[in-house]
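ARCHIVE CARD
Drawer: 12
Card no.: 0347
Subject: one protein chain, sequence and derived structure
Cross-reference: see card 0346
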Amino acid sequence: FLTAFYTGRQIFLTFSGKPRTEAAKHAPESVRSMTIPLIILAVFATFLGLAGTPWANQFFTLIGEDAIIGGHHLPHG
């Protein structure tokens, strides 16, 4: 219970608290060159996190076997 309380408090103060310094009041958002890789990493982390759950089989069935195996291969020769 205490961990959940203090984690929630920390998140609340970080993202909705008032800035304490003048520099913090005028802090810019991240540039796209930083935001886009973070979004890509978040998507991969979500999919890899799903791989360890009981719903993984349903998820991989939904996206199709070709996406996992790599599609159809032409015969050699």
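Annotation on reverse: Helices lie at 2-16, 22-25, 32-51, 56-63, 65-69. Residues 32-51 form the longest helix (20 residues).
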